[in-house]
Every structure is written in C-alpha cells, then in structure tokens.
Amino acid sequence: xxxxxxxxxxxxxxxxxxxxxxxxxxxxxxxxxxxxxxxxxxxxxxxxxxxxxxxxxxxxxxxxxxxxxxxxxxxxxxxxxxxxxxxxxxxxxxxxxxxxxxxxxxxxxxxxxxxxxxxxxxxxxxxxxxxxxxxxxxxxxxxxxxxxxxxxxxxxxxxxxxxxxxxxxxxxxxxxxxxxxxxxxxxxxxxxxxxxxxxxxxxxxxxxxxxxxxxxxxxxxx
Length: 222
Known about the structure:
- With 222 residues, the chain is mostly beta strands.
- It has a single domain (22-221), classed as Sandwich (Jelly Rolls).
- It is built from one helix and 15 strands, in the order βββββββββββββββα.
- The chain has one helix spanning 209-221; strands spanning 22-24, 36-38, 44-49, 54-60, 64-68, 77-85, 91-98, 108-116, 123-128, 131-136, 141-150, 153-158, 161-167, 176-182, 192-201.
- Strand 3 and strand 4 (54-60) form a beta hairpin.
- The longest helix is centred in the C-terminal third of the chain and has 13 residues, at 209-221.
- It is globular and about 45 Å long.
- The protein starts with 21 loop residues before the first strand and ends with a helix.
C-alpha cells in the first residue's frame, strides 16, 4: 500500500491553509491496494504505471471503469489532478468526488471530464451537482483539472480557467476521490494518463479531520 498518503498540515498547492488528505503520484508497478477498480457495464481497463504516470491503454469490453478509494468524510473540499491524453477518435476521462466508496452506482457529486466522442469536437465537461458546463478541449497534452466545493459554491477549473460555477444547497458529504476511464474496445481508443491526484479539505472542514486521521491510521495498520 505504498501509494496511500495522509498528510495533515502540509501546505497544499491549491490552498494556503488546508492540508492534503489524499495524494497519489503513481509510482511503482501497479495501482496499489487502496484503489478499488469497478465497472457496472462489464468494462475492464488495461494499464501500466511508469515514470509517475498511470497510463490506461485499453478498455476491454468497452464501458466505464471506476477507481475509488476511501478518505475521511468531507463537506467542503477540493480535488485536483494532472491528466493527459493522446490524439484519438474516442475516449473519456473523469476526475471528481463521490458520496460513497462502495456505492453500486457511482455518480460524481462534482467532476471534470475530457470527452472525445466519434464525429464530435472534444470538450472539457464540468458537472457540478447536476448542472453541466462545457468548453472546447485541446486535442492532446497534459493539463490540470480542479473541482471544489466551499460552502454553497461549487466551481471547476481547467488549467486555471474557470469552466463553470454555481450556488448549491444540500450537496452530500463526499467520501472518495473518483477517477474513471471509458471508451470503445477498438483501435480508436488511444492512451489516457493521470500524473497525480490529490484531495484537499477546504478550511470549513478542517475541524472534522481529527477523527478521520485516527480512522485512517487504524485502517493502514489493519
């Protein structure tokens, strides 16, 4: 379980006061025991972990493959990731937060996604608790995706550019970061990459982390 990090009190790149709850920079030969890989459509991903990159090279049986991992419950949060893709005809990549770690149906409370559908222009899509925003996507490269919730505000950023924001009420507590990959099981699928992903509690939820710290250390020792 070498990729599981709990770093409280460390200055995070996205917040001057909050500590990092979860960080993975994908070193080693596999995802590690903390990521739960699941699919509700029968999809399965082939991947390699190399040079601090998770490289998804194929989606077997098509469909969407989800990666989740438990963290302390957060009401206000920020999730960020550096992701990339090669030019291709069809692939999707999601970064976000979900309410339950083992829920049978995974819906992002807040997420960003790269959508490249056949015959359509690639887009960056932000889903903020049911409301969707889109901007044109670059064809290839590495970029930073970031989604946050603080109080009644949710917002999504792509390489520092605001994609969308909204006022929200009744947003559920989140308990897991979420990565997802989708595409056809065909030569049209080209690699998707994740360099790193991290979760930062916004200042309003720092007070709840004491219990979460104890829970996570107990989990790691078990």
